[in-house]
Amino acid sequence: MKSSMLRICSLIVLGAVVTAGTAWAAGAGNTSMHAMSAKKINGEVYVKASSLTGALGGTGTFDSKSNTYQYIPADIPSVIKKVSPSVVAIIGKPEDVGSADPRYALAHGTGVIIRADGWVVTNAHVVEDMTNLVVVTADGKQYDAVRTHSDTASDLALVKIKATKLPIAKLAHSPLKVQVGETVVAIGTPVSFSLRNTATSGILSGMNRSISSAYNLLQTDAAINPGNSGGPLVNMKGEVIGINSLKFVEVGIDNLGFSIPADTVQYVTGHFFKYGYVKRASLGIDLEESWSALIGIPTTDPLTVKSVFSASAKKAGIQNGDQLYKVAGKQVSTIVEVNELLKSYLPGQQVEVMLLIDGDLVTRKLTLAAG
User: Fold this and answer.
1) Which residue in the list 10, 84, 108, 125 is annotated as catalytic?
2) pTM of the model
3) What is the mean pLDDT of the chain?
4) Among the residues of the chain, which ranges form H helices?
5) Which of 169, 230, 194, 234 is nearest to 9 (CA)?
6) Which of 217, 225, 276, 302 has an alpha carbon within 20 to 30 A of 23's alpha carbon?
7) Candidates 201, 229, 245, 312; catalytic one
8) Is 293 within 8 Å of 332 (Cβ atoms)?
9) How many Cβ atoms are within 10 Å of 106's Cβ, its own excluded?
10) What is the DSSP secondary structure assignment for residue 169, as one 8-state letter?
11) Closest of 298, 247, 259 to residue 155, by C-alpha
């Protein structure tokens, strides 16, 4: 039976039915290695307290009277308490409500406050067809909202509310340092708008997933449901490592959710604030993946050129049927890999590519086009 992908915003028509179930909690074990600032004095190694909390999360206090340091490891409740104030619910009216009563035909999703003066990041699919947007913060305050920026390729958008001194979420640093198996928490507005700031936990199930997306995604088994779209996936340091966006939906399939990694979120929102849109770079050619790449088999197969549309690519002698092996010195076999590499470039900059042209392996410099 064919499975399908569901963009996890939620449409409510004349209310919603929520059924009760059994609750469980994931463990918070973390066995990864961390590099910390330290000094060796008289044979003893001393680690900075700030390095400890920075690497592992949690909190610590020093008692000068007893010269003792008390460290409290991060747990799921503390992570939720830290991040939940920066998570908002977004509700609005779909442009097409069909025959439904317009008073109750509403759609909703989730967002994350990234700037204290009212900037909220969410999924593009949450707000692309919404009117009369309203944002509700974790403390129950309501704000009229405006969609200011949207990028369908990354499925990210910005919403603006008139507010100041809002609690902001901390996005994980780029490059993203996460590993499969670490505990994560998802926070959002599943199924019903009355379930705002619902938290679920699980693990990071996979990385570098290319599932119906232009860029790599994170995979998690933390429960995400319609309405969770645009909400954060959080590590045990209380950092947002991803924005929840997709899930597999089918009978017999459980807990296959996907999130847009924090580095892509920073790339897209950085362009929004600097340029007003994503100034995306392109090689100026359309590419096709090999059979192995399409079905997910590890491969070193090149990409095949299907069409050439930029002046620079035409000048370089690239033609339909040529094969692309490397971009900027890195081997590529999927379109997502190309897109990820080009996040570091802007249109007009040059990049070196390696192709098979007329049976010869050649290197060419391309001036990147606007994507």
Assistant:
1) 125
2) 0.85
3) 88
4) 49-56, 76-83, 124-127, 262-275, 291-295, 311-315, 335-342
5) 230
6) 217
7) 229
8) no
9) 22
10) P
11) 259
Strand partners, 55: none
**Is residue 152 scored above 80 in pLDDT?**
yes
Pair 318, 304: CB distance under 8 Å: no
Angle at 208 between CA 202 and CA 210, to 5 degrees: 105
Does residue 99 carry a catalytic annotation? no
Closest CA to 108 of 13, 241, 250: 13
Q: What percent of the chain shows pLDDT beyond 90? A: 68
Maximum alpha-carbon separation in the chain: 78
**Separation between Cα atoms, residue 271 and residue 264, nearest integer Å:** 11
From the list 10, 86, 149, 155, the catalytic residue is 155
Please give the domain boundaries of the chain with CATH numbers for all domains.
1-13+47-278 (2.40.10.120), 281-370 (2.30.42.10)
155 is catalytic: yes
Tens of pLDDT, residue by residue over 21-60, are 323 333 334 455 677 788 888 888 888 888 777 777 788 8
What pLDDT, on a 0 to 100 scale, did the predictor assign at position 113?
98
Whether 125 is catalytic is: yes
CA distance 326 to 72: 47
Spatial separation of the C-alpha atoms in residues 126 and 123, rounded to whole Å: 5
Q: Give tens-digit pLDDT for 67-83.
A: 888 887 889 999 999 99
Measured over the CA atoms of residue 190, residue 192, residue 198 and residue 201, the dihedral's sign is: negative
Handedness of CA 167, 61, 186, 267 (dihedral sign): positive
Nearest CA to 207 out of 175, 239, 249 is that of: 175
**pLDDT band (50, 70, 90) for residue 7:** low
DSSP letter at 237? T
